[in-house]
């Protein structure tokens, strides 16, 4: 996966349900490389952040395995922040602010799904195809 995917319209395919689960969105950010937790030193992966086309699509992506997903979201103060999803109930998301590594549990926030600006999509769980 290369930087030429940036700002391209894509289809995100869930590898667990490749026949039926395809989500449309736009790649808005790309991590250069990051280490995979628990892998040897040479274990690296590329990942991208995808903004999905609408809230219904976003909810469909989240409902299968929302907990622990890194996302970017728009805070109520208007700032763009990073977070980790703790739980999803209906269209309400509970987040941990991952900008604060000292005491993350004291920084849990509740947001509406519409506040999520993009979700981190990793190559292990999803295929991303340019359309």
Number of domains: 1
Number of strands: 9
Helix content: under 10%
What's the level 1 CATH class? Mainly Beta
Stated plainly, the CATH topology is called SH3 type barrels
Structural class: mainly beta
Notable features of this structure?
SH3 type barrels, 1 helix, 51% strand, 131 residues, globular, mainly beta
Tell me what the structure shows.
This protein is mainly beta and 131 residues long. The chain has a single domain, classed as SH3 type barrels. Helices cover 8% and strands 51% of the residues. It has a 9-stranded antiparallel sheet, with helices on one face. A hairpin with a 7-residue loop joins strand 1 and strand 2. The longest helix is centred in the middle third of the chain and has 10 residues. The radius of gyration is 15 Å and the shape is globular. The two termini are 15 Å apart. The mean pLDDT is 79.
Summarize it:
This protein has 131 residues and is mainly β.
Q: Would you spell out the secondary-structure blueprint of this structure?
A:
Blueprint: E1 9-14, E2 22-35, E3 44-52, H1 55-64, E4 70-74, E5 80-89, E6 92-97, E7 108-112, E8 116-122, E9 126-130
Antiparallel strand pairs: 1-2, 1-9, 2-3, 3-8, 4-5, 4-8, 5-6, 6-7
């Amino acid at each position: 996966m290369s930087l030429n995917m940036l700002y391209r319209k894509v289809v995100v395919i869930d590898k667990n349900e490749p026949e039926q689960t395809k989500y449309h969105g736009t790649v808005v950010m790309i991590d250069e490389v990051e280490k995979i937790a628990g892998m040897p030193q040479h274990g690296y992966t590329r990942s991208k952040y995808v903004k999905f086309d609408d809230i219904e699509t976003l909810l469909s992506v989240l409902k299968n395995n929302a907990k622990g997903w890194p996302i970017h979201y728009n805070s109520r103060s208007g700032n763009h922040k990073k977070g980790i999803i703790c739980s999803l109930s209906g269209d309400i998301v509970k987040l941990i602010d991952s900008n604060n590594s000292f005491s993350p549990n004291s920084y849990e926030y509740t947001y509406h799904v519409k506040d999520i600006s993009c979700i981190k999509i990793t190559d292990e769980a999803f295929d991303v195809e340019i359309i």
